[in-house]
Amino acid sequence: MTKVEAIVIRERIETVIDAVEEETRHVGVTVIEAVGHGRERGVTHEYRGRVFESRFLPKAMLVFVVDDDKAEAVVRAIAEAARSGNESGDGLVWSTPVERVTHNRTGMALGQVRIG
Predict the structure, then answer these.
(1) Which residues contact 78 (CB under 8 A, 6 or more apart)?
(2) d(CA 22, CA 24)
């Protein structure tokens, strides 16, 4: 199994999840609210004549655990759906191997149970 993680802008959460479901039929995802910045280094706001700098921008972290044969398609679907057309700030996607997954309710290893 493979864990695919992605940092995306919040406005793209539903678009990315829908793209993964459509492309791979995988339906399980964990969404974690996150803040951070990459090359864009935050944004500057002006309010009532004062300048405020927000170093960290709102993002979301999406976590998918998928069968190895679906991992590349999930990565590709995320990368395409997360693209906003901006110069930077669309986030990242990466994958790592998963050694063992156990279903909490049954105690069965997920290799024995089909997921998504």
Answers:
(1) 4, 6, 8, 16, 19, 20, 62, 93
(2) 6
7-38 pLDDT per residue, tens = 999 999 999 999 999 999 988 999 999 988 77
Degrees to nearest 5, angle at CA 73 with 68 and 79: 125
Distance separating the N- and C-terminal Cα atoms of the chain:
12
Q: Where are the alpha helices (DSSP H) in the chain?
A: 13-24, 68-82
Q: What type of residue sits at position 47? A: Y
Edge-first strand order for the sheet with 92-97 is 30-36, 57-66, 2-9, 92-97
- What is the SS3 assignment for 105? coil
Structure tokens at 3: 């864990």
Cross-strand partners of 53: 44
What pTM was estimated for this model as a whole? 0.80
